[in-house]
Amino acid sequence: MGEQAKKIGDKLEGFGEKIYERFNWEELTRDQEIKCTKSSHRTEKGNPKKTHGIDLYHKCLDPYKNQYISIITECKNYKWEAINQKSIQTWFEQLEWTMECAQNAEELLEYNKNVMYIKTGYYLFMRMMGTMMILRLENT
What we know:
alpha+beta, Trna Endonuclease, Chain: A, domain 1
């Protein structure tokens, strides 16, 4: 099962890479783990989170502000039956937490030199039959 999950993850990352190349977004890193720096970020069991994972990390030019921003993309594979309001809320909360910690993450310092802020995150989902769904989180 782990091998299949890796194949699906690689496929989703490749899909994200192709989409973002068309937008002229620059990939900064992938499969990056960063330390959690917020005591309010908790696991499902209530323990403090230690890390956040980033599947894809890009930068692009915000044409309205003429500033570079970073975008975090998480790639997931779930059965449609597992996707409900609660799970989507949990995924977005986790993505928001990752964005918060990524803002000043030591692991991303070299990538964040010319980036003003991280306020956007995406989820790429894939179902076994190849159906894809993209969800966007804009943190204002």
